[in-house]
Design brief:
Pfam families: PhoU. Belongs to the PhoU family. Keywords: Cytoplasm, Phosphate transport, Transport. The protein is mainly α. It has one domain: Phosphate transport system protein phou homolog 2, domain 2 (Methane Monooxygenase Hydroxylase, Chain G, domain 1, Up-down Bundle), CATH 1.20.58. It has helices at about 1-40, 40-70, 75-105, 115-140, 145-155, 155-170, 175-210. Helix 1 runs parallel beside helix 3 (about 75-105), helix 4 (about 115-140) runs antiparallel to helix 6 (about 155-170) and helix 5 packs antiparallel against helix 7. The two termini are about 35 Å apart.
């Protein structure tokens, strides 16, 4: 019996390491995406977009490994909760990687002066997303519901900044079609960053499930499942 548990623990460790690697890649992606967006680094933006493929591959690897563990190891108790949560978490991580890639696609070689303050503020939203990602992996490693709940609270800042940015963008008066297109792109990015925070909140809910066996609503009446 002890030997069976030991082998299962080894397999669970590998499963968790792949998941953590995926989180780390997502954190790197959002950090690099905001840097490329803020500093007009088109080459770095291309790298972020290309590297999104690796995040997608890690999602598939974690999901496949999780299914194998459920089928072949017949896990019980906290083992089963961890596998189920891991399979769900990678779905959110894949979407977070997409949001980082979308931000990178908005990087341009130059920016009109009227949009620079908005670029800065959206980049700060992305940096908040990177911080949330780092904190959520710490909560995941420790399997601490309390830490996860604290991370989810940071999403309130993301939501508030999105509302403020949208109001200021709406107040702009574009004079050309190009300016109107850029305003729409910036609206789109504020939504992308807000959704990024929602996905972190979803991960937090699954960490609470891993620890407590429950998935409470966190940080608002309606969050990403």
């Amino acid at each position: 019996m002890d030997q069976t548990i030991s082998k299962l623990d080894e397999k669970m460790q590998f499963f968790q390491e792949m998941l953590i690697q995926m989180v780390n890649r997502v954190e790197e992606a959002i950090y690099q995406a905001q840097y490329a967006f803020r500093n007009h680094d088109v080459e770095l933006a291309k790298k972020v977009i290309t590297n999104d493929w690796f995040i997608d591959q890690l999602q598939e690897m974690v999901e496949n490994d999780g299914v194998r563990l459920l089928v072949s190891e017949t896990p019980y108790g906290h083992y089963m909760r961890h596998i189920i949560a891991g399979i769900k978490i990678v779905s959110s991580l894949e979407r977070m990687g997409d949001h980082a890639s979308h931000m990178a696609k908005m990087a341009s070689s130059e920016e009109e002066a009227m949009f620079i303050p908005f670029v800065e503020r959206i980049s700060e939203m992305a940096l908040l997303g990177a911080t949330m990602t780092r904190k959520v992996v710490e909560a995941f490693i420790d399997v601490k519901a309390e830490k996860a709940i604290e991370v989810a609270l940071l999403d309130d800042k993301m939501d508030a900044e999105r509302d403020a940015l949208n109001a200021d963008l709406f107040a702009l008066r574009p004079e050309t079609e190009a300016e109107m297109e850029r305003i729409l792109n910036l609206f789109y990015l504020t939504k992308e960053m807000e959704r990024y925070g929602d996905h972190v909140t979803t991960i937090c809910r699954w960490i609470v499930y891993m620890d407590k066996g429950q998935r409470p609503k966190l940080n608002g009446p309606k969050k990403t499942e």
